[in-house]
Amino acid sequence: MSTNPPPRTPAARTTTAPRLSTVPPTTISTISSSQKPRQLSHLHAQLAQLTAHVADLENLLRMTAVQVESVRGLGGYAGGMFMAASKVLGEETVTGAGLGSNAMADSNSQKREERERSTGT
């Protein structure tokens, strides 16, 4: 039988001093003096890599901003083409009456006549 452990709550934690290191206190002074230059060198290399990545990201964001303007322009052209096609093909084709179906055209004209009668025009 498996039992679930009780859920952890923030109130259940004990308040102690923050843990500064996982190394036993007796060896902290000897290890830190010998490893400190290596750790600083590693941090410096990571900082240089982070700086390079941020510069790359900045370049990519600039290129994306330029491309967004181009995509916006293409969207305008596409919208214009749709509006032009709608005007050329006519409203009946857009609503589906121009698909060669006389029954649909008759149905649309009947609906139009009923609307005209109900509005009194």
UniProtKB/TrEMBL annotation:
Residues 10-37 have a biased composition (Low complexity). It comes from the Eukaryota. GO terms for biological process: attachment of spindle microtubules to kinetochore. InterPro entries: Hsk3, Hsk3-like. One of its GO terms (molecular function) is microtubule plus-end binding. The lineage of its organism: Eukaryota, Fungi, Dikarya, Ascomycota, Pezizomycotina. One of its GO terms (cellular component) is DASH complex. Residues 109-121 have a biased composition (Basic and acidic residues). This is DASH complex subunit Hsk3 like-domain-containing protein. Residues 1-37, 97-121 are annotated as: Disordered.
